[in-house]
Structures are given as structure tokens and as C-alpha cells.
Design goal:
Number of domains: 3
Number of strands: 33
Bound molecules: alpha-D-glucopyranuronic acid
Structural class: alpha/beta
CATH class of the largest domain: Alpha Beta
CATH architecture of the largest domain: Alpha-Beta Barrel
Largest sheet: 8 strands, parallel, barrel
Radius of gyration: 25 Å
Strand content: 25-35%
CATH superfamily of the largest domain: Glycosidases
Distance between the termini: 62 Å
Shape: globular
Amino acid sequence: MKKIIVLFSLLLHVCGYAQTPLITNVPNRTTISLNGKWQYIVDPYETGFYNYRWKERNENDREAYWNSEVPENKTDRKEHGYTNKNVLNVPGDWNLQDPKFLYYEGTVWYKKSFDFKNVAADKKVFLHFGAVNYKADVYLNGKKLGAHKGGFTPFNFEVPPNLLKEKGNFLIVKVDNKRYADEIPTLNTDWWNYGGITRDVQLVLLPSAFMRDYSVQLSKSSVLAKEKKIEGWVKFSNGVNENLLLEIPELKFKKEIMVNGDSAAFSFTVPALALWSPKLPKLYQVILTSKNDKIKDKIGFRTIEVQGDKILLNGSPVFFRGICIHEEIPNPGRRASSNADALQLLKQVKELNANMVRLAHYPHNENMIRMADSLGILVWSEIPVYWTIDFDNAEVLRKAKQQLNEMITRDRNRASIIVWSVGNETPLTDARTKFMSELVQTAKQMDGSRLVSAALETHTENGVITVDDPLGQYTDIVSVNEYLGWYGGLPNDCRNAQWKIKYDKPLFISETGAEALGGFHGDSLTRWSEEYQQWFYREQVEMMKRMPSGFSGLSPWILNDFRSPRRNNPLYQQGWNNKGLFDHNGKKKKAFYVLKAYYDEMEKKMP
Ligand code: GCU
């Protein structure tokens, strides 16, 4: 037993971050939740990780914070310890759980003690994190399982056999949310750097040979045909030689799939199928049964594609009545993570009569995507390749591809997601366009069934807004952020604005918006007033009504006010970006009604 654990630890040090390939559909697997109260130690000098010569402590270092803090006798010196006086809720950012954490950027050690009744010998145990911002080093009973970087995507580790005990297990996670120039995102973001174990932590119990990942989708080729073609694949944790059963009970459909190896592809036709759409978000139960494993999922069947300068959903042109959202509950201003949080935010989206959300600027939690599936809201999902990334750095490209892979792997079976976005407002250089075009290619290789885009750059001269960002030659749709009348000019400059688009592709306005402090009123020329924001939206809407052909929708910035360390006007911001259509207390600002009226009109024109 000891040998296995030592070998496992050796493997970890060789690989650096020995993660296990991502297990998908965790909400429908056999899991044991480790959510709840975790003890913590704040460690700004990372004393628990480095000794006084700044050397990484070795695994058995008695003063390492992943090892027992219990003195061996009355003389033994221990200078760290966990106590019930210092606890944090998991999932949750630390920033809002105690005033000392609001602006904290650094390391916090989390500890969870738990018992574990033995599982059948043939089961494997995995430790799964929905997300940890930003870097996680994970130790179980003093043994390092691995590490992960990236604040908004899931990761998991296999627990070495026999490492878990019936009583007194202790899981310790070092969480570090410091920002670095060579990370994704980089030093500068217009959102709060919420740190912590911000999403669910679970033990996942699986058979020795299990279905790790799968794809079940409607083929584009059959979207207009009477008989619908479903295609996909299943990947196993290891090689098998058996028949897999795929069932769609509501269609009384069953299909045996022969698997000889660690994966199998399939395609078949079904007589009829209700296609998933915002109007009819139909989800079918899909059951995959192998010799040792069984997975149930709820899957919507739809297609999304581009034809010339039109976006087609299920073969018909669609107009995105969108809105941008941060993963934040505005009152009190904290990371969203639960089902209830997702429902709260998407109910606001429905109030706006929107049919689409741009989840800015990073993958949101899985509850949000599954709720969008159920409510029929189209989703743009994005990795935080935001602003001044270190585009010349090959390691940074690897990190971006890792996050892209984790995002796509987790959500590939979610009908609501129609766009994978590889970034936002990245400054034009050759290195940047090479970096970003590689990400576009990578996204297409990982999932050819969805559109791939990014918020591109524009430039404006003499009232002409030109879209000729070189990245636009690679993306399926041309998406741009535009703030004419807020960052430069006045809202009525929209009346004479002309658009010049280099590409014969659908055009999507991925952001437009203005700030207003909720409840602050003045005339329309009074900056920060609700009336200014209302004027801005009125002028923008009028411009949207005369956009060039191929204009396929917009997602204004933003649904709710949100925290940002960059926003420091002492009267109108105080650490908040107030471009929300709802204020901190969930009250609609005047501009909300301008956009809603436009969306009501557009729904009649393009239902
Ligand atoms: C930018 C950026 C957002 C930012 C917004 C703003 O376009 O994409 O992240 O918050 O504009 O300036 O408010």
C-alpha cells in the first residue's frame, strides 16, 4: 500500500500537476459532497509552503501546513493550526465572508476533515473541484494529489487506493489568487478578484472502468430532414470490450454500440425529435449503460451554424436578444455558484425578454449552464483571455488551451451553449492574432458543432466604425464591443455613425453600455444619472435598427452592477462598475425599459 502512495507521489512530482482527465456530468454521478464549513489559515507569506530560505517544503516537513498541526508532546513546537474559530463556507469566495478578505490577494489554506465509510473494493474514488480561483495545491492525509491553475474551470484527481481512512481524513487545499502577467487572466481585469474554493467539492465514486466523457448531438446534416440523425462518441477510463447501450426512453429508442478499446463513435437516426430552442427548450433523458457504469443526462438537440451573414438555429435565421452577465450576485456582491443563484440571474434575463446571455469573461459554474438549458436561454461561453495577455509566451498559450479544453469538455452536451469565445478585447499585434487564431482553431478541433468567436477590436474615425480586426478572418461571427457615447462622444453621435465591416459574416455587438448610479437622477446630459444611461440606450437602439445586413444581435454590458477594483469615482462608483440595467439592489434602472421595448419589438419581427 505504502509503495502505491509513494509511486503516486513520485508521478506527481514528475508531472508537476498530476491531474486526472476531466470526468464529465459529475452532477449525475455517485458523489459525496465536501461542501460546508472548512477551517482556514491566512498565509500571505506562504509560510506553510516555503521555508525561511524560500525553498518549497518537502512532503514530510513538520511545519508544512498540509501536515498535522498537533504537537507530539507538551514540548513540541508547532506554529500553525486549524481551528473552528476560523471557518469559510465552501463553495464561496472568501472576499465577502469576512471584512479582512474583501481586497485580499494571496494564499489561504483550507482544511476539511471527514470520515469515509469504505466503498466496494472495485470502486475508484476521485476528488472533483468545480473551480478554485486561482491556483490550488491539493493534499489528502498529508499526501499531495496535485495542483491546478485556472479560476473558472473544473479539475479532478484520482485518490490513490487505500489513502482514504474510515475516520479522520483531512483534505487541505492551498488557494492562491494572486495575479500574474503570465496567467489567464493577466494582471488587469475589470472584475473583482474573488479568491477561494468558489464552486462545489465532491468525492466521485466510479467503477474501475467508467465512461469518463461523451458527446450526443444532432447532426447538422439532418436538421431539416424528417428523420433526425444523432451522432456522438463515448470515451472510457480504460480499454473495454463490450456492448454499450444508449437509450432515449421518451423516443422508445435503444441502440447497442460495440466498444473495443477506450472509445467508440456512433450515429443513428430517430423518426422524430422536438428540437431544442429558446421557444421550446426540450430536453431528452439520455441513458448510457455499460457493463460497470450507467450515466443519465438531459440533452437538448439543436444545431447552430452560419450561412453567409446569417446565424441559423435549427436551420432558421436567429437574432440574439442578449445581455452580458458576470458570475456575481450583486447584493452583496459575491460569486454566484448555486442553482438558486443561477435561477435568480436568469429570471432577470427573462424579465428583459432576452433569449441569450454572454457569460463574461470566464466559464460560469455548471448550474448556470444547466439552468440555461432548462429555461431556453442561448449561451456565449468564454475563457478569460482578456486584454493584455502575454501573447509571446508559449506557456501562456498552453494555459489558455487548457482552460478552453476544460470549458468545452465540461459543457459539450449543453444545448444552450452556441458560441465558444476565445477572448475579449485583446490588443492588436501579430503575436496576439497568431495566439488567438490558434485558440480559434483549437476550439473548432475540440467541438466543430458550435460557433467560435471573440470580442474583436474596432476603430472609429470621423464617425465611421470600422471592423477589420485580422482575427475576424478566423472566427465564425464577427463580434465587437462598442461604447459610442460613453467612452468618447455623446450618445447622439450614434445618429451619424456608419459601420464598415470587412467580413461577409454575421455581426454581433458583444458589448455596449453606459454607467448609471441607481436612483441618481438628472437631465440626460448629467453623466452617471439614470437619464444619461437611458439616453445612451435610446440612441444605441436607434442605431441598431439601421445596422448593416448581417447584424445578428447584441448583448449589452451588463445585466447587473458588479464589483471592480478599477472603478473608483467616490460618488458614483466606490469600487463598482455601475453599467447594470439593474442596480445593486435588483431595482430596474430607466434604461432597462428601453432595451426591453426593443427586444419586444425584435421578438415580433424575428420570433
Ligand atoms: C470592456 C470590457 C468589460 C468592461 C467594460 C466596461 O469592453 O470587455 O469587461 O467591464 O468594457 O468598460 O465597463
